[in-house]
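User: You have something folded?
Assistant:
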Amino acid sequence: MQLTLKDPTLAKKITVGALETGDLPQLGITGLNMRVDTGAATSALHVENIEEFIKDGKKWVSFDLLPEIHNIALAVRISCRVKGAKKVKTATADTQRRVVIDTKLTLGKKIWNIKLTLTDRSEMNYPMLLGRQAMVGRLVVDPESEFLLAKAKSTKPKTAA
């Protein structure tokens, strides 16, 4: 039996593995290993010490970005505008309110804006989870593969100081 592509846009999509390495250039982070999760609607980034505040009449958030979850020495304090807030069902089926920000994601040779929720992922294996909303129209996931766009970084992720 011969398979044919029914979706003509499929050829324009990037194939990624269950794990990939990407950059969040607006947050100053490169070489971030992430779990690609078609079961999660939203993308999530591990941060600590989240503080919401008002600046010039707009909602802002500041947080400690830990590109390497268990190495506090690499923490960088970031401030950015809040896009909104979202109730998210966690991996343990709890409901959690999360701050949402807009930022750019670089994956392979492509770059685009994504919505990213901020949360404590210290119990997870990867500091970032890439969810469906960030993938729509751009990515196809091969769950049997890992790091199709770039090899896993043997060094730890880097942040701009």
User: Anything to note?
Assistant: The mean pLDDT is 86. The domain at 17-45+84-150 is CATH 2.40.70.10 (Cathepsin D, subunit A; domain 1). The longest strand covers residues 43-55.
